[in-house]
Design a protein that fits this description.
The complex is a heterodimer of chains A (211) and B (249). Chain A has 211 residues and is an all-alpha fold. Chain A is 82% helix and 0% strand. Chain A has helices at residues 2-22, 29-66, 72-92, 97-132, 136-150, 161-202. Chain B has 9 helices and 6 strands, in the order ααβαβαβαβαβαβαα. In chain B, helix 1 packs across helix 9 and helix 6 packs parallel to helix 7 (186-195). Classes of the chains: A mainly alpha (211), B alpha/beta (249). Chains A and B meet through helix 2, helix 3, helix 4 and helix 6 of A and helix 1, helix 3, helix 4, strand 3 and helix 5 of B.
């Protein structure tokens, strides 16, 4: 029974995958409309999965509150904010002033603050990197970062045109020649890896789904 | 159907045929994996976590399962299944987190399927595959509470990440946990290089499964990728030489 179900799920995954894939290359009217329908289903399922994910989020945090686990007050705040925003959205609509204010004055500043923290995290990360991995790759990485930073934006010490021009030129050379070439090489590797992963699913060797 | 489409179909077909042929010969001529310190350290960290009764956390990123972001998410799901197998004896099952409902559902399905295949379906908990937040930064905001509450000591970041991935990896590093991180986005790979204990570069992100013991087609696919990479290098070099000598393509 279990093996039978496995075969059915695998066949469905392979079939749907092949229908979507062929649409990128071959224009067969019947299959093309089927592909469009499948992609529409995928988008609808992804939206429905968001609700499912929110249910999962609630369950995890309600369990933490119920068990008075460490950090439960944060979980309580999350549940209150989630339910509160949902109720306000359902009552007043997603384009109401109240909902827009919540996004503008609560969510956006919080996300902007976190994005701002990234600069501090990266600076501290670079310092930690020096103590953690002292090798050639780290040295090149940090030297490149310093050159790019010095070559970007205004020169801070006086009006030193000579130094600024040197670093601006070095920055352009590093980012437009070395970094671009390396990025393309990496992208080719990523593309090969992603293709192999996709093909393994299409061939039924990888089955990241239940039986 | 244009020439480019034919070429793409040809490359994909060649990839698939090579993959099948190489998988068939894998038992007789097994693929030798080159030593990668990141994966050696990961195995050691996972073993220590299992012995210490601490948890392994696999972050599947903030991307979705639709479009180009699905590649690293699928690789992450594959890694999740291997990690679940490695931590089967642990008191604390592997926990997967993501910033998308679809990926969270897929992670729960992967966990359930793998535990079923391993003969331990009773160990499955649907809360071990979690969506932490529906936006990239809300995902990051809730991550520290999860890492602290679940006594996580090993963090694997394997999925699509934007700049928020660096912040997530930094938060994991601040909890004194081991951090291995890989993604498909090149700028985020650079950020992970600065922050993670063991960053994965380029296609290494997709190689975690074989390095954690997966055999068959997973292992064979690494050899096929190497083969195609060499072919690409040769084609690029020939193209460059032809253009240098003024021969147009």
């Amino acid at each position: 029974m279990r093996t039978g179900l496995q075969i059915i799920w695998t066949a469905i995954a392979i079939g749907f995958g092949l229908i979507v894939l062929q649409g990128y290359f071959i224009d067969i009217p019947g299959l093309e409309s089927l592909r469009t329908i499948i992609l529409q289903w995928a988008v609808i399922l992804a939206a429905a999965a968001l609700l499912f994910g929110l249910g999962n989020l609630m369950a995890v945090h309600l369990a933490k509150i119920g068990g008075q686990e460490p950090g439960w007050p944060y979980s309580a705040l999350l549940v209150v904010a989630l339910v509160g925003t949902l109720i306000v959205g359902l009552l007043f609509g997603q384009e109401s002033t109240l909902i827009l204010s919540l996004f503008q004055y609560v969510q956006q500043p919080v996300e902007a603050t976190l994005a701002g923290l990234l600069a501090i995290s990266l600076t501290l990360g670079a310092v930690r990197l020096l103590s953690r991995r002292r090798d050639l790759r780290t040295t090149v990485f940090l030297a490149t970062a310093v050159i790019v930073m010095l070559g970007t934006g205004p020169w801070l010490i006086g009006n030193n045109q000579g130094f600024q021009q040197i670093f601006t030129g070095a920055r352009a050379w590093v980012s437009q020649v070395w970094a671009t070439g390396a990025a393309r090489g990496l992208l080719l590797g990523v593309a090969l890896g992603a293709t192999a992963t996709g093909l393994r699913v299409l061939l039924g060797a990888d089955r990241p789904y239940g039986d | 159907m244009g020439l480019n489409d034919l070429l793409a179909i040809g490359v994909l077909a060649a990839f698939a045929v090579l993959l099948i042929v190489r998988t068939g010969t894998e038992r007789r001529w097994p693929t030798a994996l080159r030593a990668l310190p990141a994966f050696t350290e990961l195995r050691r960290a996972v073993e220590q976590a299992v012995e210490a009764g601490q948890r392994v956390h696999l972050s599947l990123g903030t991307g979705t399962l639709i479009g180009s972001e699905s590649g690293p998410a699928l690789a992450g799901l594959s890694a999740l299944m291997r990690t679940t197998e490695l931590t089967l004896e642990s008191d604390r099952a592997t926990v997967a987190s993501s910033g998308s409902g679809a990926v969270a559902a897929a992670s729960q399905d992967a966990l359930r399927g793998m535990l079923g295949r391993l003969g331990s379906p009773g160990l499955y908990r649907w809360t071990n595959g979690r969506m932490l937040g529906p936006t990239p930064f809300s995902y990051v905001a809730t991550l520290p509470t999860m890492l602290e509450g679940d006594r996580v000591s090993v963090n694997i970041f394997m999925g699509h990440f934007g700049p928020e991935g660096a912040l997530a990896a930094d938060m994991a590093a601040r909890q004194k946990g081991f951090v291995l991180a890989g993604t498909d986005a090149i700028p985020s790979q650079a950020l992970f290089f600065a922050i993670a204990d063991q960053p994965l570069i380029g296609e290494e992100t997709f190689a975690l499964g074989p390095y954690l013991g997966a055999g068959g087609m997973q292992r064979a696919s690494l050899r096929v990728q190497d083969l195609l990479r060499v072919a690409l290098i040769v084609i690029i070099l020939i193209g460059t030489l032809l253009r240098t000598f003024g021969i147009g393509l």
